[in-house]
Design the sequence.
């Protein structure tokens, strides 16, 4: 091979390389680049990078059994979509919000510290959401809870709650309906006209439900003869129970958590005059550990809980859950949380825009708009539609009576004495 | 093989000067490369190591300062709540609350510095991925300040001199007692004392059931006041009003305590969330130092390997050059020397230089000339030898002739010759006669 031939071949190779580079540069510069026009910004996810979704639940403390199960419901929802959205793996980022406003604040700060997190499934307790939501909303995130029920987080009677923040949604019911259902049962079904309420101080859920009950009971022409507070951690309930006896109450509604709820039931047996007062609590207390704690002392007490879904899909979910985690589902909102997670994942899939280079762009306001406009989504709990306040849950309740501790929490939940629904 | 032959051919074409130049040039180049490699590698190691260790130490220092700053802030916060009942609210705020605020401000500034340090330096991926934690650290510190500020405000509402709820409760208790004493009903005063006792229990223990007992007693007291027939409506209204005010303040204290407790709970949760981050950052920074040292060791190893490889290559090249010289020059010079000796010994075979004469280099030319010269010398020598031999023969003949002449020219020889002739004649005559 002569040097002249080598030279001409090298020149040809160089020309081809330059031409190829130019073509790549020109075609890439001509391809339409995504420009974020979302009012509150976009999350950009590079090819191969994960879509981050937060799980904010009570993962420690007395409510952790619920928080853990709800986290698992999210995992189940993720499994159901194959773990990916638009070929990007979905990464779940966990934060323990400890079923308190303070825990919610800290967990909220942890979540917003990562600007790649798009939305959050949580929280377990309303108080956590009350603490976290201001930060999450400011950062442009959405949060969907399967178990928050406090009216203050959304609205009561079409009036925005004091803790309302854009971007907050829930598939759980609104306690504005549950309180009304409990008051209706007490006043109309049981025929009690004098009621008392015990709530936990500074607890959003407890105060929200208690306040709604008081208002609804009064609206039904009942008389609220006592309204008292306990602190988380109080052990001696006798003083407040004596105050209730002294008030002349016939009915006590106490939407509180463990262990305070256990102590109210147990110590009510030791307070003279309480044998004539009917006790009623809510889903926050009716758990397996509560039944084991109070045993026979709980006989005769009532509980208002969300109605259990009844569908083949729900049964399949429960079977799959038990098969995967080898534990029974004794919590109330696992299906609601599963639906919350599914809605968020589907919403992300729907609003995501895939760029020519494979980058995924998710508009934060677009995601919110999608959720606010959600109508008739077929979930495990039924057809889910969201309103302008973020309420997407169904108001269907059952009042159950604790007759026999040996039947366990599921048996008690099946002992239905009253059904209430806002659905026509 | 063919390539080797081509190379061999090319090498053969080069002049010895060029070969020497190339060989020694290559050796020199290799030595320079080896030296430069060592120098550059060591410089890079030194620079990188210094940089990594400096940054890691700086990160570690900043993280430790942040951690210490937060701990100091919490210490001042606790001091504030312990001291303000004795030193007074304003003094406590000045000495402890403000100190806590400035500590938090410093922590926030340090967090920003740390973020910049990590973002602008070549730190480990593990440390870079801590950006989210740093964001949280930063916002948690800011939230801590906000929460502490709220707690201080709540503490002021609770325990501020004269205006605080606790002072107001005490004053209201005095007013209520004064009003009750005017009724001259010892049962009412007794109930008040009982209520007051439960309230004080609460203020000592902060256990809500104690205040609930006070509230229960207050309701009992209210009933007793309502049923006291010795009181006029105005007096009754005044006492009830005082009791209501007392209860309102008691409830205010309960709510303030719940709020303050909430802030304390938040501090604890924040500490629980932030402490591991500070610890992990210290560990990561420490790992970064170790990593930098490992990097140095690794680079040193690489440089050593590189130097050893260069050395081996140098030796190999030297041996190759030597071998090449030997094969190409020395061995051929020896051949020429042997040829010269052979020439001298007169046993030179020109064909012994056939391999050499084909070369195009100086040695080839020398061999060719040598071979030619040797051949010519041999030819001349052979010719000379022949000439000498011929000369010798001629000389011998001449000498013989001379010797013959010397003999024949003598009288004696002539006489002998004459006698011989005479004899021969006699013999011939005799023979003729016999026939």
Sequence:
């Amino acid at each position: 091979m002569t040097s002249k031939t080598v030279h001409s071949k090298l020149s040809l190779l160089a020309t081809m390389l330059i031409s190829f580079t130019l073509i790549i540069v020109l075609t890439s510069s001509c391809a339409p680049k995504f420009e974020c026009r979302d009012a509150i910004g976009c999350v950009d996810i590079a090819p191969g990078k994960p879509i981050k979704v937060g799980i904010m639940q009570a993962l420690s403390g007395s409510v952790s059994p619920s928080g853990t199960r709800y986290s698992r419901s999210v995992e189940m929802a993720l499994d159901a979509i194959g773990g990916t959205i638009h070929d990007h793996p979905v990464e779940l980022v966990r934060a323990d919000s400890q079923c308190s406003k303070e825990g919610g604040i800290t967990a909220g700060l942890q979540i917003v510290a990562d600007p790649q997190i798009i939305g959050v499934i949580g929280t377990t307790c309303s108080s956590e959401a009350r603490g976290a939501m201001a930060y999450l909303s400011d950062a442009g995130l959405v949060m969907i809870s399967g178990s928050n029920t406090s009216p203050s987080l959304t609205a009561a009677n079409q009036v925005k709650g004091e803790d309302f923040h854009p971007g907050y949604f829930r598939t759980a019911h609104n306690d504005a309906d549950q309180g009304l259902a409990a008051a209706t049962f007490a006043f109309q079904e049981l025929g009690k006209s004098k009621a008392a309420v015990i709530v936990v101080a500074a607890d959003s859920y407890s105060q929200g439900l208690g306040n709604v009950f008081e208002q609804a009971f009064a609206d039904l022409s009942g008389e609220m003869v006592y309204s008292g507070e306990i602190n988380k951690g109080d052990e001696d309930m006798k003083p407040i129970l004596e105050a209730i006896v002294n008030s002349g109450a016939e009915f006590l509604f106490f939407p509180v958590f463990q262990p305070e709820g256990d102590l109210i039931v147990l110590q009510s047996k030791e307070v003279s005059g309480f044998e004539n007062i009917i006790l009623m609590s809510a889903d926050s207390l009716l758990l397996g550990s509560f039944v084991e704690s109070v045993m026979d002392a709980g006989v005769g007490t009532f509980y208002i809980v969300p109605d259990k879904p009844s569908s083949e899909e729900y049964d399949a979910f429960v079977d799959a859950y038990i098969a995967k985690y080898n534990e029974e589902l004794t919590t109330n909102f696992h299906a609601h949380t599963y639906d919350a997670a599914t809605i968020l994942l589907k919403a992300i899939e729907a609003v995501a825009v895939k760029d020519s280079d494979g980058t995924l762009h998710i508009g934060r306001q677009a995601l919110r708009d999608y959720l606010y406009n959600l109508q008739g989504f077929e979930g495990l709990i039924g057809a889910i539609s969201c309103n302008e306040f973020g309420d997407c849950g169904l108001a269907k309740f059952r009042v159950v009576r604790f007759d026999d501790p040996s039947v366990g929490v599921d048996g008690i939940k099946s002992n239905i004495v009253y059904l209430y629904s806002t659905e026509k | 093989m063919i390539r080797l032959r081509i190379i061999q051919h090319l090498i053969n074409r080069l002049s010895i000067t060029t070969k020497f130049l190339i060989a020694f040039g290559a050796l020199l180049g290799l030595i320079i490369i080896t030296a430069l490699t060592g120098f550059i590698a060591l410089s890079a190691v030194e620079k990188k190591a210094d940089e990594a260790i400096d940054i890691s130490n700086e990160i570690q220092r900043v993280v430790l300062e942040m951690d210490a700053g937060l701990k100091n802030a919490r210490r001042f916060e606790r001091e504030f709540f312990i001291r303000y009942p004795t030193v007074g609210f304003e003094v406590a705020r000045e000495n402890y609350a403000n100190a806590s605020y400035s500590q938090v401000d410093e922590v926030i500034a340090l967090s920003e510095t740390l973020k910049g340090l990590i973002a602008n330096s070549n730190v480990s991926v593990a440390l870079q991925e801590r950006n989210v934690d740093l964001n949280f650290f930063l916002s948690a510190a800011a939230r801590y300040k906000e929460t502490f500020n709220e707690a201080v405000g709540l503490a002021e509402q609770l325990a501020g001199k004269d205006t605080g709820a606790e002072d107001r409760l005490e004053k209201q208790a005095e007013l209520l007692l004064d009003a009750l004493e005017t009724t001259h009903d010892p049962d009412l005063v007794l109930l008040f004392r009982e209520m007051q006792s439960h309230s004080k229990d609460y203020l000592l223990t902060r256990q809500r059931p104690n205040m609930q007992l006070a509230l229960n007693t207050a309701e009992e007291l209210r009933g007793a006041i309502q049923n006291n027939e010795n009181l006029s409506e105005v007096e009754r209204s005044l006492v009830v009003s005082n009791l209501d005010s007392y209860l309102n303040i008691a409830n205010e204290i309960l709510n303030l305590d719940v709020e303050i407790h909430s802030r304390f709970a938040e501090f604890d949760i924040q500490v629980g969330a932030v402490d591991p981050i500070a610890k992990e950052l210290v560990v990561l920074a420490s790992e970064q130092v170790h990593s930098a040292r490992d990097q140095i060791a690794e680079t040193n190893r690489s440089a050593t390997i590189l130097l050893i490889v260069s050395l081996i290559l140098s030796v190999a090249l030297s041996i190759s050059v030597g071998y090449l010289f030997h094969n190409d020059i020395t061995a051929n010079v020896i051949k020429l020397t042997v040829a010269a000796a052979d020439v001298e010994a007169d046993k030179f075979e020109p064909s012994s230089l056939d391999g050499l004469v084909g070369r195009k280099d100086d040695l080839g030319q020398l061999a060719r000339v040598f071979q030619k010269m040797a051949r010519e010398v041999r030819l001349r020598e052979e010719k000379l030898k022949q000439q000498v031999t011929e000369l010798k023969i001629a000389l011998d003949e001449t000498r013989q002739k001379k010797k013959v002449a010397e003999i024949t020219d003598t009288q004696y020889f002539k006489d002998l010759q004459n006698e011989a002739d005479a004899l021969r004649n006699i013999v011939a005559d005799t023979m003729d006669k016999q026939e």
